[in-house]
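Standup notes
- DV: blocked on the single-chain target, sequence here:
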Amino acid sequence: MTEKKILLGNEAIARGAYEAGVKVSAAYPGTPSTEISEALAKYDQVYAEWSPNEKVAAEVAIGASIAGVRSMCSMKHVGVNVASDPLFTAAYAGVGGGMVIVAADDPGMYSSQNEQDSRMVARAAMIPVLEPSDSAEARDFTKIAFEISEEYDTPVMVRSTTRLSHSQGIVELQERTEKEPFPYERNTAKYVMMPGNAIKRHIVVEERMKKLAEDACTMPLNRAEYRDLSVGFITGGIPYQYVREAMPEASILKLGLVHPLPRKLIEEFAAKVDRLYIFEELEPVIEEQVKSWGILKAAGKELFTVQGEYSANMIRTRVPEYRAAECRNVPGMTVIGQAHSDGAGGAQPSGRTSGEGAPGQSPLAAANVPARPPILCPGCPHRSVYSVLNRLKIHAAGDIGCYTLGAVAPLGVVDTTICMGSSISTLHGMEKARGKEYIRNWVAVIGDSTFMHTGINSLMNMVYNQSCGTVVILDNSTTGMTGHQDHAATGKTLKGQVVPAINIMNLCRSLGIEHVYEISAFDLDGLEEAFRRETARDAVSVIITKAPCVLLKGVTFPDLCVPVSEKCRKCGACLRPGCPALTKNGDGTVSIDETMCNGCGLCAKLCRFDAIEVRPR
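- DV (later): unblocked, structure below
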């Protein structure tokens, strides 16, 4: 009997890769893509790693592909930017074994600094894109992506979104297909992208994309579902589920291969329906191409926003035919093309529920749910460091991680956040623009994982180009924001193997930096002295603040902070760092929630009147 499981979309992608015979997987953790690699690491037949960054991950997958095996790299949409350098050239070179890049976009910016559409990157790179609509398709499309990769000699992108990645659906498990490695044959014309070779390969890429566009018209990935011909939708991915929910009687052209588009199939569908809508999240990638072919009756972004996540309610409120259509009976359905299901039920999203709202507005805001501001965890070592920087009125060029929350009240230290590894380069740019005195009250802050990602390059640049400035590496021994993944400085691989850990202090010193210091993140006096001393220095200096993330497994909390109300002067000093375990009472004294307190002692150190004691639990 075939086994069925309820899987997250990310788990289903991993299952598809496993069943397709993938041998090598590389990734850098990034929500909403992280669980793909975590799931793949559980299969002994697959080598899976956390790479230092997405560029390296893509290069690892490319190398494995050239060696003749099926490979995959996974990342969130902003990681595609980091990986774009090797990816664009890999499109020219083609593949040996099939190669798939999974890009997880984040409509609504649930955990991201922008809302870019990876389909546009794929169009520029000239690689095909598959977009599944539920967990079952996530598994199926991943397997098909490897077949397309090898048949058409190209890397293939599987595009997911937060809603698909973190939704659950039923998946029928199948056996793994073991693929014999393709024999390696030296082929410099194919794999060495010097200009003379690349010019010829560009011609190959153009012909490949033309062939794919023609073949897409008959691929089962794309299917026309003819029902009521008075209204039709061109859609794909998770938005397909919203169309089926809101208007189950509408005709739908469901696109599984969203680049290149099947022009003939689209023209045939458009000719058969009276009113045509293009329902796609984020950018008008499909719409612009369809209208460029002269299909001007298609309505798209004039009705549906380019901002945020879509919903069934968006169709209900913005499609005129909705009210009339819901009164009609659903006629018999004719499906052109094959499908594993009609998708009527589809994925069951976990977490937030999409509402209508204004363009770009959070669904929670639309539902009038009280706002819950982001905040560092009780006992977080970043809060201690930021409390000292705040007291000294030092600004911070920030980076991507939990510590980005140092930008919000009450800490209010982080002034800039651009991308992974940018904090150090930003500080360097400020120094070169305005001089040493300008940055006396600035530091760059970066986490240990982000430092290993791309911060090393930026620090190297400061040394090489004779800058000055203080870099604070907030070392909490993990990749905290994405769920506590390991990295090269933690001493453990994705597979759980214990390996030598990169010593960050020695690494910084190896760059020629003389002033490198380690200090406990909770040593307030030591931190203040170090910040004052190093920001005044005419050189590059590094302060590594060390304390593990309070949510790491194995981190214990033997102590508890207890208020002594009779000693409290009601000054509020203990409340200034914003620890959620502390509450101000009506009489001005402070209460501490024992279930939240991790006993870090920050509040006790800030109290000058001994009104908070640190006691054993």
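- Follow-up: The longest helix spans residues 195-215.
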